[in-house]
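for the recovery benchmark. tokens below, seq after
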């Protein structure tokens, strides 16, 4: 299986790097958190106890109104809920490999159905996920953005040293795109142009 897993803290630019790989290099985006978000959407927790009109706000309505990224930024409880459900709930109580196993199964199914595009996974957060992806032929990239606050949740602590190369997101969007394109060329060369 061909693909790239992206390591980095929240807000480092992982999704922007993935979007560049999709738009400019023909990748298919598959996130470890996609089924987690589906699960959270189904549970539909309360994420804001009182909004401007005095009512409450639930996750599903907020996502429909604003989209996932805005909701995670505007309502910190949404991000905390996703972290707790995905890590303390599923990883700790069901199976630490659950999310990566689901992703690899879905990627394999798509490949067998004829979708042979390489896969980009923009949310590699744990060492076991990095190892599993590498074992299936994925390259691992790290994205760093100076000035981000350290977070306390374990899903944000995977060392950037797990990546085969480092992208420094410290400039303009155009500069980031140039770095992604250069990293793609480097990965193609090191992987004998299998991407």
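predicted aa per position
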């Amino acid at each position: 299986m061909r693909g790239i897993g992206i390591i980095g803290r929240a807000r480092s630019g992982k999704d922007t790097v993935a979007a560049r790989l999709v738009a400019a290099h023909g990748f298919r985006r598959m996130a470890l958190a996609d089924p987690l978000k589906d699960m959270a959407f189904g549970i539909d927790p309360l994420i804001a106890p009182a909004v401007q009109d005095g009512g409450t706000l639930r996750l599903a309505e907020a996502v429909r109104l604003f989209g996932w990224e805005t909701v995670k930024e505007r309502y910190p409880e949404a991000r905390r809920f996703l972290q707790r459900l995905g890590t303390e709930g599923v990883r700790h109580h069901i199976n630490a490999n659950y999310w990566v196993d689901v992703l690899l199964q879905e990627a394999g199914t798509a490949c067998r159905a004829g979708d042979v595009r390489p896969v980009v996974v923009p949310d590699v957060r744990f060492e076991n996920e990095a190892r599993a992806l590498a074992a299936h032929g994925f390259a691992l990239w790290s994205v760093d953005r100076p000035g981000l606050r350290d977070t306390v949740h374990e899903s944000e602590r995977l060392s950037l040293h797990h990546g085969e190369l480092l992208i420094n997101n410290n400039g303009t969007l155009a500069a980031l795109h140039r770095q992604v394109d250069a990293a793609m060329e480097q990965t193609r060369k090191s992987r004998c142009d299998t991407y």
